[in-house]
Design brief:
The chain is α+β, with helices and mostly antiparallel strands and about 170 residues long. The chain has four helices and five strands; from the N terminus they run H-E-E-H-E-E-E-H-H. It has a single domain, classed as 2-Layer Sandwich (Beta-Lactamase). The longest helix is centred in the last third of the chain and has 26 residues. It is globular and about 40 Å long.
Amino acid sequence: MTGDSWALFEPEFWALNDVLYTLISRSYSRTAMLIDRDGRLIASVGEAPAFDPQSFAALSAADLAASKELASMLGEADFRSQTHQGMGSGIHQRVVDDRVILVVLYDQRTTLGLVRLRAEKAGEALSEIFTRIFGKLEVPQVQYERAGVGADFGAQAESQIDKLFG
């Protein structure tokens, strides 16, 4: 959902949290986050990251927007998921309903295969919850621009990057 803020109803808030906690416990991951396509953090569960989560959210949305452009160069509409894996930790991102990005932070306690499997299952459950939320708000499915971000994304991302790197 694009716009100034998110409206979460209490039953859906708890349902989202349950899905995210189940995801991190069953995948042995550190943290799970929900980020909107404009780069705003919606929810985060698990270990508190050692970085600014809002800056991370903006960069994560920008990363996914860039991968959408790469996908179009290959004739794909979008990449539904992507992973960045380092020596000791990794990030797995999955698009949920073209509206939200599920991000899982993991380390050597687990495997990428398990994270991907559990994130896919979580994505299905999250999709149902967001359908309920948007149904209550009577918000139609938003068809995002070719880049996959809102018009104000550039300014928000630049502001977050300036804060992050000073």
